[in-house]
């Protein structure tokens, strides 16, 4: 599975692509940051982020996109920008028909460090170690994007298998219920046919 991780932000939108499978060490495909000038209006900055993510999807062909779930912060202006960039990432992925997963910061931290309370430095350190990188990815937005991708590779694969198993069980249950319903309908038809034939025989017998 190849996953594009997106750490949304207006000034810096972190992007990281990793490839791997649950239970196996993932490998780095690409990492970087989309930067937008602060003197541009928000709409133009979002257009630049959209174009950047489109280009990354074209170049690296991910199977899924993992985006950090936006959560409440004290700085409302910051969280608004983050939410807008997050929405752009989801729209771009959906337009390409790619599945999108949202992971909270604590989920990502727990996945890569074992603790949902790890700080950014600990996350960067573990991302460097997991991907066996020669140096720490910078800035932190890039490292966070890689952490998101790693989290989805490890957790998303398990989730998908559970969802597939649940889907298979539902389908099997639906098929079993359909068979039961069909048997009931067939039995009712047989009874109706038998009753009709009995009536016909009674009528014929009366005529004699």
From TrEMBL:
Molecular function as annotated in GO: crossover junction DNA endonuclease activity; DNA binding; magnesium ion binding
Cofactor binding comment, as recorded: Binds 2 Mg(2+) ion per subunit.
Cofactor or coenzyme needed: Mg(2+)
Highest taxon in the source lineage: Bacteria
InterPro entries: RNaseH-like_sf, RNaseH_sf, X-over_junc_endoDNase_Mg_BS, X-over_junc_endoDNase_RuvC
UniProt-listed Gene3D superfamilies: Ribonuclease H-like superfamily/Ribonuclease H
EC number(s) given by UniProt: 3.1.21.10
Catalytic activities: Endonucleolytic cleavage at a junction such as a reciprocal single-stranded crossover between two homologous DNA duplexes (Holliday junction)
Keyword rRNA processing included in the entry's annotation: no
PROSITE patterns in the cross-refs: RUVC
Catalytic machinery residues: 7, 68, 141
Pfam family, one: RuvC
GO process annotations (BP): DNA recombination; DNA repair
UniProt-annotated binding residues for Mg(2+) 2: 68
Localization in the cell: Cytoplasm
Residues reported to bind Mg(2+) 1: 7, 141
Main localisation: cytoplasm
GO (cellular component) term, any one: cytoplasm
UniProt keyword list: Cytoplasm, DNA damage, DNA recombination, DNA repair, DNA-binding, Endonuclease, Hydrolase, Magnesium, Metal-binding, Nuclease
Family per record: Belongs to the RuvC family.
Primary role: The RuvA-RuvB-RuvC complex processes Holliday junction (HJ) DNA during genetic recombination and DNA repair. Endonuclease that resolves HJ intermediates. Cleaves cruciform DNA by making single-stranded nicks across the HJ at symmetrical positions within the homologous arms, yielding a 5'-phosphate and a 3'-hydroxyl group; requires a central core of homology in the junction. The consensus cleavage sequence is 5'-(A/T)TT(C/G)-3'. Cleavage occurs on the 3'-side of the TT dinucleotide at the point of strand exchange.
Name the record gives this protein: Crossover junction endodeoxyribonuclease RuvC
UniProt organism field: Kribbella italica
Lineage summary: Bacteria, Bacillati, Actinomycetota, Actinomycetes, Propionibacteriales
């Amino acid at each position: 599975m190849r996953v594009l991780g997106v750490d949304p932000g207006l000034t810096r939108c972190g992007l990281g692509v990793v490839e791997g499978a649950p239970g196996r060490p993932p490998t780095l495909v690409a990492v970087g940051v989309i930067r937008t000038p602060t003197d541009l209006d928000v709409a133009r900055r979002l257009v630049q982020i959209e174009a950047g993510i489109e280009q990354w999807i074209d170049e690296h062909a991910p199977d899924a996109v993992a985006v950090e779930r936006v959560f409440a912060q004290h700085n409302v202006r910051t969280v608004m920008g983050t939410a807008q960039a997050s929405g752009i990432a989801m729209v771009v992925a959906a337009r390409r028909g790619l599945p999108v997963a949202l992971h909270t910061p604590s989920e990502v931290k727990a996945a890569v460090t074992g603790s949902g309370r790890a700080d950014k430095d600990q996350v960067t350190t573990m991302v460097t170690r997991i991907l066996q990188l020669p140096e720490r990815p910078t800035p932190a937005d890039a490292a966070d994007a890689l952490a998101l991708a790693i989290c989805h590779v490890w957790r998303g694969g398990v989730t998908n298998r559970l969802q597939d198993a649940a889907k298979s069980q539902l389908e099997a249950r639906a098929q079993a219920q359909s068979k039961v319903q069909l048997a009931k309908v067939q039995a009712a038809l047989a009874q109706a046919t038998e009753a009709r034939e009995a009536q016909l025989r009674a009528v014929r017998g009366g005529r004699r």
